[in-house]
Amino acid sequence: EAGFAVTAISRTPGVTYNESFDLQCIIKPHYPSWVPVSVTWRFQPAGSTEFHDLVTFTRDGGVQWGDRYVGFRTRTAIEKAESSNNVRLSISRASDTEAGKYQCVAELWRKNYNSSWTRLADRTSNLLEIRVLRPVTKLQVSKSKRSITLVENRPIPLNCSVKSQTSPDSHFAVLWYVHKPSDADGKLILKTTHSSAFEYGTYAEEEGLRGRLQFERSASGGLFSLTVQRAEVRDSGSYYCHVEEWLLSPNHAWYKLAEEVSGRTEVTVKQPDNRLQVNQTHKNITVLENQWVTLECLVSSRTSPSSQLSVDWNVWRSGHPEKEVVARLSRQNTLRYGDLVVLGDLRSRLHLESPSPGLYILSIQNATVRDSGAYDCRVEEWLLDPSDRWYKRAEDLSGLITLTVKQPDPTLQVDTATANLTVQEKESFPLDCSILSRSSPESHFAVTWYNLRAKEPGGEEEEEEEREAVLSVGPDAIFSPEAGRWEGRLRFQRLSAVLFRLTVLQASGADTGNYSCRVEEWLADPNGVWYRLAEVESGTVAVHVQDAGSTLQSVICSNDALFYFVFFYPFPIFGILIITILLVRFKSRNSSKNSDGKNGVPLLWIKEPHLNYSPTCLEPPVLSIHPGTMD
């Protein structure tokens, strides 16, 4: 045992995964092969403080493996040199489980006469530290940045590209993150492990993304895609992927070799551009009471054909500081009336319809003056988001429709011609009230006859004319009481819808005077309330009641037509006749070429007639004709 020593050496203190390394245990002096020497390789794993027997080359030339590291046997070879007792340990396909410290222990033995063995000496070698290094990663992930702007309900395409990898056998785990401005760190959406298992992150669970995520991997294995279906506005954010490269160790265990983060994709999900437009044309509508009014609200364009619209009709009325809601048609086609309609009578007169998409018509039946005002419609457009929730996307106002409801323009006209009427005492005389035109076929009339007594001389001053109501007939055909002196002597007749007659029976001298009628035109509004539209007065009828002994002169003077026929019309006719005679005579004279007084025949001369007319009708007109002398 003198000079007995052991040394451990290795040429490859550092190896890479799957490479091989050799350990040599050199024993000195070089004993011949028949000298019994046993050599044991011991191993202390990296991170441990204990040594364990790995393999022993026994003194009789056998190999005995330790029971702790059974896995070494498949990848370890032990060899003893023939010329010496040196022992070489070879380990192939190194992994991190082979990393650590190695040493060899040599024992020198002697065989006794009784076949027993005595250990003469043992020596322990120096420590050999073997480092098993992982492969140098070549993983590279695309760092390019991009921005995507899209409308909701469209898919969000996200790509993660591996540009290079360490080994063709590399597997990848991809983690998808989203970072919101309000968050400090990104939130995990989805993780796909190196074994292609899916794990949803907290963000996907909180935001309900599980049903909207679609993951794909290209056939080449270097391109990974994540698609978020039916994008929502809240999906906006900064997306990126985290790639892990995994390799299979020689021990058939997967280990993560490297990891890298991709560039970010800025995603902006917005609502569809507002394309809602309502016709802004201002209109003025003027109608008469009781007519049918149609107000149109036209949607000229909308954001989406599948959108739903709600329509509010409002009115600004004179004297009201704020607009009032008339009716509201919800997007579910539910009709609701405003307070103005509920409290008034408008509800029963409203009719709302949509004859075509985008056209809404509000009709008011039997319009009244109170319906006047400035109307408009407010349209709201509702869209369905990817989560099947309706939200209001836009609203727009129409132009103002100024509605003016008027009472009919009064066109009442009554016969205003004056007339003279002479009757004898005890006779009857009619007083007609003729309506020439009326404002409406539905008009009713109230008629009142008046008596205006003639003036009576009373010295220097004359008394005012006395106006007395004879009879009144209301629009409801109710008669007023007859005045005292007319009682029992009046007879009313309605000869037609526009002709009324009052007959005074048993005329007396006190009935002499001027008579007229006043007509009031009444109409019913849409609520059935009657109102007076107009009133006019007819011309006067001068009535003269004669006593039984009246003279012919008084009869003629009291009747204008008779007066003109007797005293006026004959004189122009007689004058025309005389002028005709003179013209004939003048022509005859020229043809005979006679001068004034020739042949003893004097010329005919006529003095211009003089007509004396007394407008007081107290005396008849005097006609004076002065003829010339004629041979």
From TrEMBL:
Residues 18-121, 135-262, 272-398, 410-520 form the Ig-like domain. The chain crosses the membrane at residues 561-584. Gene3D superfamilies: Immunoglobulins. SUPFAM superfamilies: Immunoglobulin. GO terms for cellular component: membrane. The keyword Cell membrane does not apply. Keywords: Disulfide bond, Immunoglobulin domain, Membrane, Signal, Transmembrane, Transmembrane helix. It comes from the Eukaryota. This is IGSF3 protein.
